[in-house]
Amino acid sequence: MALKVVVYGAGGRMGKTLVRLIAESSKFDLVGAVERENFDKLGEDAGVVAGVGKIGVKITDDQEAGLSKADAVIDFTSPDATVSHLESAQKFSVPMVIGTTGLNEARMSRIREASNVIPIVMAPNFSIGVNVLLKVVEVVSEALGSEWEVEIMEIHHHGKKDAPSGTAKKLAEIVRKIRGGKFVYGREGIVGERNPDEIGVMALRGGDVVGEHTVYFFGAGERLELSHRATTREIFARGALRAVEFVVGKPPRLYSMEDVLFGDK
Ligand code: NAD
Question: pTM for the whole thing?
Fold first, then answer.
């Protein structure tokens, strides 16, 4: 039977992608499409707004819409909104998948508290490929040992405001946790020979690149490169839907994409 899903932020970039993928899949049914007060498309059909034609669910600012029959809710909105949606999900005991980023410690603590009552999957990056890369980099770093030199490079579109990307930082942290070392974010001038404990993290910017990450492992006489290339933002929505399938029926806890992909321990 199809899983009944409520999408918060249904008129946003991620929300519209989710509505479209849900409409195109037999595994999911949209039972609620929620937006903020004063959103300019309130009352319009969520499918029409997402570009897939009428699906019979109107965009509403009632944040309890559809919750009484929902199997799960997905939230890609803003930190404030996410915490408020959490109250509603908890009130109706509905599992939650959270993609919103930038939550401060107070909001995170509210999420941890709620995860004692409802199961929640939260991830800063829902891409399945990126989450598998994180795991593979951990295994490879352990296997190769500290004599292999590691450098990380990421490429993003010219509109990205932060550097290095959150994913590049996470990759670098995984490498450092296993072999130690210090991050080097750029090189210019007479920087001297590469220090063995350096982990270079470089950011390139240009064009419309959705996101690329490569971890280089340099050995003596050989080199291993692990790369992930994103060509569409749809990957985050696909990962979030995979998380929905995982979280329904799970005991209350805060889960990560690692739990979703590799099983929760
Ligand atoms: P967006 O601005 O296009 O969409 C956000 C939507 O949420 C907007 O339509 C907005 O009107 C709506 N919203 C705001 N307050 C609301 C409320 N109180 N109730 C209901 N809806 C409300 O942004 P986006 O690109 O879709 O990203 C949304 C969030 O998801 C951001 O925090 C972004 O960083 C994050 N994100 C995470 C991942 C991931 O893999 N975890 C991937 C992409 C984006």
Answer: 0.90
